[in-house]
Amino acid sequence: MKRILGVLFLVVVFLGVPVVSAQVSTSSIDGVVTDASGAVVANAKVQAKNEDTGVVFEGATTSAGTYSFASLTPGRYSVTVTLAGFQTYTSVHNVLTVGTPLVVDVSLKLGSVG
Q: Residues near 84 by Cβ (< 8 Å), separated by ≥ 6?
């Protein structure tokens, strides 16, 4: 009888413990960089700058033309893409919210010949 009461007590205690779920407090910025013809652009330099804090994250596009900045804090971000032979692309005031990835796809225009 004591054993049954002990087991019953443990069941009641565990049922009373709230379920703890992981809370996400970050998000990501992802995108694809292409040229004017629609071909993917590899090895382009990509920067994501938090406009509120000034913190800059740097990366490069993959061979598939994709880039990703994971685990960013929410805020307003500017995204800048540069590559020799192309005009610099900048998109400002992109709002990143918790748990909702921001997609900034980029189409680079050819640069002027100097």
A: 111
